[in-house]
Design a protein that fits this description.
Elements (H helix, E strand, L loop, with lengths): L2 H8 L12 H6 L3 H4 L4 H15 L3 H7 L4 E5 L4 H9 L5 E6 L6 E7 L4 E8 L7
Antiparallel strand pairs: 1-2, 2-3, 3-4
Length: 129
């Protein structure tokens, strides 16, 4: 084997990892272009992820989360059809809107399978539009 291949094998490859939650990984893989002026994104996403574990219903999440509002996305809408086509289980989709800062979180809840899936973290409101 050449040295070039050995070097590639030793470097960690991170797929589906959001590096801003780990300070070491954030130092190695910075997201400064996204989070340069919007430091509140990290705290909103942390609060949302902890709220999923602490809250037992959507009403409880609406009261505890810092988002402007949590909206249910109808299963017949174009957003829901696109997302449910990709997912393994059918989910009831919701969107958390954080107001004017450009952050939306799309997540799904499956009552039948007792699952929660974070579908997308949309920083520019362009994921479905």
């Amino acid at each position: 084997m050449s040295k070039k291949i050995k070097k590639k094998e030793t470097q960690p490859i991170i797929y589906g990892y959001f590096p801003s939650f780990d300070y070491y990984a954030h130092a190695r893989h910075p997201l400064d272009d996204v989070f340069k002026t919007k430091k509140s994104y990290i705290s909103h996403i942390r609060g949302f992820m902890s709220g999923i574990f602490e809250c037992c219903s959507i009403i409880d999440m609406k009261n505890k989360l810092t988002g402007k509002e949590i909206k249910a996305i109808g299963n017949n809408s174009e957003e829901a059809k696109r997302v449910n086509r990709v997912l393994k289980y059918p989910f009831q989709l919701y969107r958390v809107d954080y107001g004017d800062n450009g952050l939306r979180i799309y997540f799904g809840i499956s009552q039948q399978y007792r699952l929660v899936d974070i579908v997308a973290i949309d920083l520019k409101h362009t994921y479905f539009n």
